[in-house]
Structure formats: C-alpha cells, structure tokens
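Reopening this one. Same input as before:
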Amino acid sequence: MAFADLTNDFVFRRIFATHPDILRGLLNDLLDRQGHQAIDTIEYLPSEQLPLVMGAKLSILDVRCKDREGTTFVVEMQLIHHPGFINRVVDNACKAYVGQLKAGAWYDSLTNVVAISICDFELWPDKAQEAQGLKAVPMLSRWAVTENSSKSHTLQHVQYAFLELPKLPERKPDTGALQWAWLFVHAPELTEIPADLPAPYREALELANQAKFTQAELDAYEKVRDEIRQVLAVADAGWAEGNAEGKAEGKAEGEAAGFAKGEAVGLARGKAVAVLAILAARSIHMSPEARALIEGCEDTVILDQWIAQATTAASAEEIIAAASPSHP
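Same output, byte for byte:
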C-alpha cells in the first residue's frame, strides 16, 4: 500500500471536509473535549475554497463546521510560515465571530469561535523561547483570554489551538492529538495500516490509501504536491539568495552601517522573491510593471503584506493596490 500525505490540501479536504465523524474525532482530540464536553455532532459550513478536483492554488485551506451548541470551528492546514501568519489567524477568527451577527440581531446571538491551525513548521521554536527566558510552547498549544490577576477565563468567545508538527516526539503515540500529528507526519512512509490503529485514525488513513483514488483524484493529488514543492523550493532559494546578496553588499562597504543596510536589502529581496514565487505557483499573471514594482520594493512591512495576500489574491495588481506604506 501507498498512503498519501495528509498535509496535502487535496487529501486534507478528502478526509476532513467530507467525513464529519473523522473531523469530530480530530476536534475532540485537539481541544481535549471529553465526557459531557465532547463534540457529538457537527454541521459543515460553506467553504471559500475551490472544489477538491480543482487541485491546489496554494491557498489558505480551511474546513468550517458548527457543533450542536453553535460553536464554530475553523480548521486549517498550513505549510508555509509566511510573515504575519498569526495575525492572519486572529483576523480570520475574529471575522468568523462578528460575521455571525445578522442585521438587527442582538449581540447575545453570537456564539464562540475556535480557530485550529495545523502547522508544518514551528511557530514558537524551543531555542527561540529559551533565548528569551520563556518556557517552551508545547506541540499542541491552546490559547484564550485570561484575566491577569484572578486568572479568570470567562472571555472564551474566540479561542485558538496550534499543532506544530515538527515538535512531534520520536516515539509512536497511541491515541489523541499526538496520534493525529503522527499520521500527518508519517502517513506517506507507511506500507500498511497498523493493526492496533483505532478509529477514527484508521478511517482517516484508509481514505489516504492511494489505491482507492480514482485517476482524477491521483492527478489532483500530484498537482497539489508539485505546486507545494515548487513554492517551497523557490521561496527558500529566494530567501537564501536575498540574504546572501544583502550581506555581500554590506561587507563590500566595509562598515557596520553598510553591513546592516546590506542585510536589510537582502531581507527585502528575499521577501520579494517569495511573493513572486507564490504568484507564479498559482499561475497568476504579472505585468512587467507589477513585477518590477515587487522586485524593487525595499519596504519589508509592505512585502510582508504582499506575501500574506499572495496566497489568495486574484492578481498582482490587487496585491499592490491593497498595500499600505509603513511610514509617511
């Protein structure tokens, strides 16, 4: 047997966007919902993404649903750690919360929103936390508003959960959130379904069995995989090239100020290449004028905005028009 990568957009939606019992199992494990707090039923909400058979466009993929109590869950699989990622997660969660309010309705009609991000990268690396004198953030972290003095946590209207796959321990877990993380990381390496794998993990892995894909589904899966590889490779090369160019320029000036300037130029160059790589992978046409403007931009704040918008924008001009200068 050969199993598809569960982090692949096509496979993620094949499993979690069409099988509510599997999605419910994922939610209960990631949010530690047990007993009377367990999610027993869910209802899918409309998604803004393209249909499964269309393949990838390097979008921010999410699956949305509600439980019996009305809580909205937004689950996303994210492969690229672009600048402003956490800001975008917060923005989307808040939009999902306020978007429930109908004209003329009372605010008490609003129900809780939980944003869940499964990340194929580290958001809070252990070494970075240690360098700041902070405790390590666990692989699965849950976030909500807490009052500083009393530690009261009654403001639970918008909550967040992040699963950082690179932090997965080496040992094979049995159940729970660690089991899901293990499947996301190791499914493509398996040649058979482990005999002791319980439901709903077994059902998820069975849906990832490529032998059960139609030819159209295999084509869509490969298309997504090729696009992801292209974007990651080009973006990584762009960051490396940009930083190298900037440092070389700074060294040539022979002064600390010049080196700092060179690093800044290199950082901007790397971000510009990342914008162009994402747009190219999504087959977004760029006019020579738009390309020149992106390549020549040295404002890293604007470039960060462009990287975030490049995953969903319909054109390069749309990205450029939405930019706001970082200074007068």
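So the earlier flakiness isn't reproducible anymore. For the record, The first strand starts at residue 42 and ends at 44.
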